[in-house]
Design a protein that fits this description.
Layout lengths: L10 E2 L8 E7 L3 H11 L6 E4 L51 H4 L9 H9 L7 H11 E4 L3 H7 L13 E4 L7 H11 L15 E4 L2 E4 L4 E2 L2 H9 L5 E4 L2 E10 L14 E10 L5 E12 L2 H11 L2 E2 L1 H6 L6 E2 L12 E8 L19 H14 L11 E5 L1 H4 L4 H4 L1 H6 L10 H18 L7 E5 L4 E6 L7 E3 L11 E3 L6 H19 L1 H4 L3 E3 L1 H4 L4 H11 L34 E3 L14 H18 L1
Parallel strand pairs: 1-9, 2-3, 2-12, 3-9, 4-5, 12-22, 13-14
Antiparallel strand pairs: 5-7, 6-16, 7-8, 10-11, 11-12, 15-18, 15-21, 16-17, 17-18, 19-20
Bound molecules: flavin-adenine dinucleotide (FAD).
The site of flavin-adenine dinucleotide has 43 residues, from α1, α2, β10, α8 and α19.
Length: about 625
Amino acid sequence: SPTGYRHIANIKRSAAELAESYDYVIIGGGQSGLVVADRLSEDGTKTVLVVEYGDIDNNKDILLPSTGAASLGRDFFNFSTAVNYHLNNKTFAIQAAAVVGGGSAVNGMLLDRGAAEDYDNWEKLGNPGWGFEDLLPYFRKSTTLTLPNKELQQEFGIVEDESAYGDGPIYASYPPWQWPGTKAQVNAWKELGVKSPAKASSGDAVGVFWAPSALDPRTWTRSYAKTAYHDRAAPRDNYDLLTKHEVLTIKFTNSSTHDPLPNNSTSTLRATSITFRNRGTREVSTVSANKEIILAAGTFHSPIILQRSGVGHFPLIDRAKIPRVLEVPGVGVNLQDHAYMTRQYDYNTNVSPNPDMLDRSSPKFNQTFYDWAQAEYTNHQRGPLTVATANTAAFLSLNTAVANTDTITSSTSRARSQISLPGTYTTSLRIGFNMQESTVLSSLSSPASAALAIPFTGKSSSPLIMLKPLSRGTVSLDRAAPFETPPLVDFRTFYHPVDLQLFIEIFKFSRKWFEAPAHRKLGPVETAMQKNAVSDAQIELLLREKVLPSSGDAVGTCAMMPFNRGGVVGPDLRVYETMGLSIVDASIIPLIPGAHLGATVYAVAEKAADLIKARA
Ligand SMILES: Cc1cc2nc3c(=O)[nH]c(=O)nc-3n(C[C@H](O)[C@H](O)[C@H](O)COP(=O)(O)OP(=O)(O)OC[C@H]3O[C@@H](n4cnc5c(N)ncnc54)[C@H](O)[C@@H]3O)c2cc1C
């Protein structure tokens, strides 16, 4: 049922309720973990166990599009980043979901995809089979499209490439409401010469365009990995989900069997079981996997589970006094996210109604309109509360914003870039980073790939998001108490010299949007602090104070790259030099695409399930 109450009886609450072994043991019942669990159990021939740190959240507000992730603090891990030197020495709360469904349960539901070039870049880094044409069938397989009615399509110019969707379990829908001010915002981009692609969802994701939300059109509630994948898997006898248990380690044995190994490796190391801890009683148990252990604990937790198991960069593992198992220097490095700031302005002459009228913290809040909107949604499942964070955004290539992109991607900046890397980088990691840097710089100069995004909804403030960072962060276990403390996360935002320069340019460019004639009709006025940032030096000061390191889109910490370029998994998603261990979550993404991550994570997980099935 879309309300999520039906299958609670099938959830396991303690280790005693489990079998001794399963064909597949999946670590993390978040977005990717539930996709893979559903696909591996669907033909009924293999047994699957998912072990999830969080619980099922059956509160109604998790399903409401308008609630927004911020109010769901109960469903997040509670930890912070390391001090970020370039962001005025501040720390930031980490956005990592701790609930069945993971990020898909708490995110802003915008279901956009990156440009074809963003995925083709993964292939270029040494991952055959991972270009956009390879992924498109999986974008299709995971989603079913619902367009809004014809009047809304015409009024707002909503165009979609229906062939880019299939009949998958995630509903990609356009809600039956859009805010009228959005039209002026879209037109302002067009006045600036920004194109409006008709096939954004099939690879042409550069320009100003519409994108669906992950919304069930039968009820206008959140469509996410739990409702779409878990709920249909839950009645199967061969599928178990254990909640409120934390996986601690993966255990390995030396195997004498001759299974095919990734990349002609000679290793005989086989992942055979996991240890996990009841979050209440703290009792530790073990369960075995006959075929594969599948890591899906997300970008922050998958690397530390490997490190706790002795797999990673040995100096770090030694310092934590963990027995060495396998040296893989790429574990926990290469962290990337979409840093952003909120571009704050007021509309003096906004059209009515507008989203500020629903915002209690805005002086434009209107109680009568608010009550009407609540009643419309509650009684008729329609009106403004069917809208999640946004369905419109400008995804702009750098050459739209900057006349001469060479000033940013110049060799001078590149020459300095090596000093931006963490001191722990080995030679292979440095070589891998050089490949990534060249690839990103070439995409920054390309009109076929976006460098910045500004989603908007008619509201008087919009995020300004940097899509192609070159700074690289780290995730590592706390050597003092590796099994008790959360991962140490250092985003290292703005460590690479190009990133700050890029952000200054896109900040300046965003001003042109306010100045476009269509936009001026809404009377946009920047808040004093932002308006006063005029020179590059002033903008830099503002950015260091206002930029946040993460949009919740963290990737890259167990990257799919060649082993001698700092990779952790190969294109078959198996951890190098091991048997029976794969990774399927956002951590394998080597380069962050120019889109929110949700749609991409579904496609990656669908493809992962096919790869795992094929080798079984
Ligand atoms: C606040 C927020 C807003 C976002 N907004 C959008 C958006 O609007 N659009 C969009 O497309 N994307 C958005 N994203 C990004 C997207 O949701 C994520 O990229 C995606 O969900 C990541 O999926 P995953 O499977 O890699 O990890 P997750 O979904 O995070 O799954 C990891 C799971 O592993 C569990 N886990 C962790 N450690 C352990 C352990 N030791 N033992 C057992 N279980 C463990 C966690 O509890 C979690 O359930 C947002 C993300 C966040 C956090």
